[in-house]
Amino acid sequence: METMRRLPVGGWGSPLRSTLLALPGVALGDVLVAQGAGCEDPSSGPDVIVGDVFAVARYAAVGGIGAYSLGVAACNVGDAELDWVAGSARHPVVAQNVYRLEAGRFEQIGLSWVKHAVAALEQALCCDCVAAGTGARLGAGCSSASSAVLHGHQPLLGPRFEVDPHTGLFAYPFFDEGASGDSIYKRIQIALADLDPAQHPGALYFAECQYVAPDDAAAGNQDNNASYRQLVVAGVGGGYELSLVGVTQRTRPAIRAWADHDSSAAVREVRVPGEGLFLVGSSVTDAGDGLWRYEYALQNLDSDRSAGSFRVPIEPGTAVSDAGFHDVAYHSGEPFDGTDWSFAVGADHVEWSTAHYAADPDANALRWGTLYNFRFAADRAPNVANATLGLFKPGTPGEVGFALPAPIGECTTWSYCATSPNSVGPGAILGSSGGPSLAADTFTLEVAGAVPVEFGLFFYGAAQVEVPFGDGLLCVGAGGIGLFRLNPPLLASAEGAAARRVDFGAPPAGSGPGRILPGESWNFQFWYRDPHRAGGSGFNTSDAVQATFCP
User: Dihedral through CA 183, CA 189, CA 192, CA 198, nearest 10?
Assistant: First the structure.
């Protein structure tokens, strides 16, 4: 049976105590702390999640912009205490966002600066609480609730640009610490027109909060730190009240609400190798008159490298119309340029992009805690294709591929599985060119990031697997037929690149069990030597590409 005790206040220091007790709804001496056994299935290390979004505060509107803040309860679902040290860079920060789902379109309409945590009030919302006995740490299994007023307290709100969401590190003291402004300064800002029921009948709204913490990220637990809850809008004119309904969807970023409330939508995860996580939502609907409406939403959960371009393949000759883009407005002095992404139509793709990092490091990249939208109409029905997200900040790889529906024929390719670090960098990335058309006979496999001047081999098979293999993963399975080598082996260039055209007229692609026929899907990967990696097996693998072939 768990016991309860009062959390002592005196050890937190008089400046912190004065700051907290001056805020409405905060009474530290009355906080009860549960002493229990922690979570039943805890994560390894500290792991902060949003356990509940439980309140909304509204402030006076300024110039057609409304301001809000959210009451949030954090839970440490890990097996170790989480740092919560005020006056340092060893505490969590929390971002607050608002989204709207309307007519099959999921958009972000508001965001705040991040609120810096000041003290852990050890409670037991998510699990039994093993109390740390100090406001400077959140015990294993414990929770800490902060009111909406506290999360709107401007002196504690800092900018997002100083936060690296993947490492959890941020600048401290933070920019504009202690500063206040007008009623909308630093808080969640939403254009009142975006909340007007007359302009948006039937729209659904969602609140989202996301924690970032250094020790949570160091333990590799940063991907589950966002949760969402549905909102209801009421009122007329500038007096729109937001109230919460339903229950908080723990560890589910807001984009998940699109698929939760719209059966036409699908959401998938896209990992930047060795770095952060994006979530990509898509919906394709038949608009009639031979047109299809393509809607995409990309949410950057915790990638510091961010995204600077988004490319979707199209079948050559496709008529594209009514393209659109939507972002969310930064404010209160965040340095980012809000210029919309440019749109271009190529022979076999459409692409949106912002300025390159080298030209403008403050360009309107898709940064952490934000969601951007991309849309167009086309005169071709969807098939699964390989889209590309171009990364904004320099690094390797420069882009990541992923599958989504696009106006393309049945000849398609897309990337899957994961690469693994090698002795020279983050790993080998496999791609293709020429297209998987047997008649064109130009399908070429291309790899980059392998070990320079070492031998490697392309191979393929009918199945997809993901099992440890050397220093990487085996992503291609035999599928009851076998694995097929594209001989002879190749020597990677001084840049670690290699390429081979798949000859559809020669074995194994042209005869026998490995023959590639129209309508079939095959999976390709690159194996290569890596004798220089300390403690390694001597070889590694790239990620993989699936190709569906047509005549």
Answer: -140
